Amino acid sequence: MNEQVTRQILWNVPLAFIVIMYALLALLFAAFIYAGTYWYRRISLGTSEDRFDQLARRAWLALRDAVGQGFVVRENWDWMHYCFYTAFIGLTIGTTIVLINSDIRELAALFGFRLYFYYGEFYLFFKAFMDTFFLMLIGGVCAAAARRFVRRPRELAAPPADKMLDNLENYLGYWYPLLMLVLVGITGLMLEGARINATHPSFTEWAYVGRRLGQIEGALGAGPTFHRWLWLVHVLLVYGLLFAFPFSKLRHFLFGPINLFFRNLGPRGRLRPIKDFETAETFGVSQVEQYTWKQLLDMSTCLECGRCTINCPTATTDKALNPKNLVIVQREHLLAKAPFLLAARANGKEAAEARVWEGRDMITEVATEQAVWDCTNCGWCEEGCPVGIEHIQRIDDMRRHLVLMESRFPQEATAAFKGIEVQGNPWGIAQEKRDEWAQGLDIPQMAELEDPADIDVMYWVGCAGAYDERNQRVSRAFAGLMKQAGVRFAILGKEEMCTGDPARRLGNEYLYATMAAQNLETINRYKPRRIVTQCPHCYHNLKKEYPDFGEVGYEVVHEAEFIDELIKAGRLRPHKALNRRVTYHDPCFMARHDRKWNSARRALDAIPGAEVTDVGRSKNRTYCCGAGGGCMWKEEVGHRRINAERFDQLTAAKPQTVATGCPFCMTMMTDAMKAKSLEETMEVRDLCELVAEASGVPTK
Amino acid sequence: MKILVPLKRVPDPATTIRILPDGSGIATDNVKWVINPFDEIAIEEALRIKERLKTGEVVLLTIGQSNWQEQLRTGLAMGADRAKLVLNDKPLDTLAIARVIAKIVAEEQPKMVILGKQAIDDDSNQVGQMLAELLGWPQATFASKIDIDGDKCTVVREVDGGLETVAFALPAVITTDLRLNEPRYASLPGIMKARKKELKEIPIDSLGVDLTPKLKVKELKAPPKRQAGRKVESVQELVKLLHEEAKLI
Question: Does A538 lie in the same domain as A458?
Fold first, then answer.
């Protein structure tokens, strides 16, 4: 096709308008530089943290999840976001193409290059694409507005107004960006229509929306003058949108990819150890500037979508902790305190120490202590966040301050701490009773083995499996099952101690470090190649947290994986039919933090007669039982219980058996079942108990 | 105000106590040791009084072997200012212990001695009372509330079937009951500081106290094992058994 098939770029636009366009562009750059400096200075208030490793992998993941919208398309409504996101990118590329074929083309011509391709077939396709993008933009924005202003889902509710700053960003909210987006879309199409109407080219069918609009505009008497002024209005609206990027919630367009680039690449759910107990003067975080720069970047990035709350056990049971509100009010606090901190920093160290912050206290007045203690560490907030915000560490840092510095925490936790300190278990039951569950089962202990290398696997029983009556039955079933399969295993017996998980999750990092060192010393004395745990929390700590505390030369498997392995190898044959409907409740520390949910289902599926179904909230979208994050060891506040909420979700599948793979889930689900007086018709079982029963393992 | 808190090391309440075959004492292998819970309440109360008055010193004291330092350090980590460990490896009766404490009181001149009403190991409940007598000080035992106003002290005591309020002038000896307070959990800076706090060891012989026991433990015996119960078919049968076998009615 020939070069006649095109349009004249900037047709009908007077020079004054063009000058306005470029002047605003220069101003826009200045605004971006100003905003960039503003946020950089605030984020730099944080302490150091290394997030500059594995740059290539970081770049790829940021590309996949930000540019490719990897996180975003997971939720239903995200098709809406995907729509106008794609349209926005498409239209930006389109504008760039126009720029290349005008200004850059002229610049290239000065150097003797010919740079021009805005004609012919390309031009026609281009027009069709642009019209489609405009439609996607308008449609997506209308859907977003309907959701935000009409349907108003819970997760979009804002934090209390008294905790929000009175600034431009909060004023603009999302109404302004959405309004600008839709107006840019509408005027863009109208502008195309006005030009078609005024110039009457013979090749308009590709601009399938614009040409129709042009006909209407023509019928209404629009001519070149209308086009000219509409051009100015469109350009001003585009700038109205672009200027909003650094100063409104649209900031996430720039911060999201940056935050995803710097995301945590380490194991999920892992907490940062404190290395300098001997030299540090403060532990944990009570002042916002004690957070690392990445944690401040997290706050700055939050776009307030509320995905962190939709499956959050505390936000959905009306507790004080709402992860979205927490991160927002912490950001507001950072911005409120920043001038004070920046001034103090500018005046040197001594002056900084002399000044006292008289604004709100971050923990007690901004976050509130109750919210800090509510968290169950289930990890949904981090699973749901589209921009990689890390919530658990930020909350645990405050717990660390409260416990280590101020010794202020829920009274009930004292018993757990002292129990772990003195007897090596959070119940505080005598350490010498640790192996009583195994009496009469003839289970070898590591200390009795002639050669500790003679075993296939060391069974780490865990405190619940060792002391809690119901879970002792699980330990006996699991041991019986391993015997049946001919597994050579041994336990540590009295030498095993709590991994320290409850202490750590409740902020007592010092006690945790002590327990980790002690357990690693015991384990390394026997050097087992493999450790199997029934408890996902023991699993998580032995596998992912202990490497921070010493040499780890073992592999850790969870019972679900181990049983699955034994069944696959033909060493276990579940042959007795258990004719019941079973639903599996995924423990957070397996499914969410470790992304493992298949082996448990395969193990259950191997049981003849068992009809295994999943509820909506399962696998990585599982809902917490309420015991994690040390919540097992303190009272739950509020009248809606997390375990009851979860049990209701599970019973929606009308199961006869709720199966799980975690001793604490077992306790919470059993309690919920009893609270509903359903123990006559239902049961809560560990998956190893079900497999043991089906495999004909004698019960003791 | 200077407050002296004598404390005892006892087996953790969760520990299963096993008597030595000869009945002379308890087996100490596998035993986890802690501060006597009532003494821990005494430390907490002393610290609260100091915090309330915004001045004073809390001095810990124990009588035992060198490894009892651990319990003193725990108390120092809670916030006590310094500690004294009277080194001794012979069995002492309550009067000897009261005499040793009285001797330290004479040296330290505290305004108040607060200690647990009893130790949970032998449950003697005597040291506080004996100490008050030796010192000629007022005593308030089983305290569940302590108020101080200058040199005047008011204590609410837990007595059978109710509460009794007593008032007296300091110095005095106070023994603590369970509901006086909830002892704090040591903060990490507290633990770190405790390592550097003064802990003085004093050989018991250097005190020149008469340690001759007036009391000798002859034998320790475990309580009889509980027998398995029996299920009866009817009330009549139960009444019959209670009457004929148990001879209770």
Answer: yes
Are A553 and A602 part of one and the same domain?
Answer: no
Distance between CA atoms of residues A570 and B113, nearest Å: 71
Q: Which range marks the domain in which residue B65 is found?
A: 2-244
Listed in sequence order, the residues at least 6 apart from A143 whose beta carbon sits closer than 8 Å to its beta carbon are A77, A80, A83
CB-closest option in B30, B34, B185 to A407:
B185
A551 CA to centre of own chain: 30
* Closest CB from A281, A404, A432 relative to B16: A432
Instruction: Give the separation between CA A607 and CA A567, rounded to whole angstroms.
Output: 10
Contact of B17 with chain A, judged by CB distance below 8 Å, is answered with no
Same domain, A544 and A497: yes
**C-beta of residue A328 within 8 angstroms of C-beta of residue A159:** yes
Domain region containing A614: 573-694
Quick one: how many helices (H) and strands (E) in chain B?
Answer: 6, 11
* Half-sphere exposure for A333 (CA within 13 Å, toward CB): 26
Distance from C-alpha of B85 to C-alpha of B203, rounded to nearest angstrom: 8
Considering the domain architecture, whether residues A437 and A314 belong to the same structural domain is answered as no
Number of domains in chain B: 1
Give tens-digit pLDDT for B67-126.
999 999 999 999 999 999 999 998 899 999 999 999 999 999 999 999 999 999 989 999
Same domain, A533 and A596: no
Same domain, A183 and A71: yes
The A residues from 459 to 518 touching B (CB cutoff 8 Å) are: 494, 510
- Indicate the residue among A208, A243, A261 that finishes a domain: A261
| pLDDT beyond 70 at A351 | no
Strands B33-35 and B9-11: antiparallel
C-beta pairs of A84-89 under 8 Å, 24+ apart in sequence: A84/A136, A84/A137, A84/A139, A84/A140, A84/A141, A84/A144, A84/A181, A85/A140, A86/A133, A86/A136, A87/A133, A87/A134, A87/A135, A87/A136, A87/A137, A87/A140, A87/A185, A88/A137, A88/A181
Q: Which helix (H) or strand (E) holds A138?
A: helix A120-145
pLDDT over 60 at A214, yes or no? yes
Identify whether B249 is part of a domain.
Answer: no
B189 touches chain A (CB under 8 A): yes
Contact B191 A510 (CB under 8 A): yes
- A85 and A201 fall within a common domain: yes
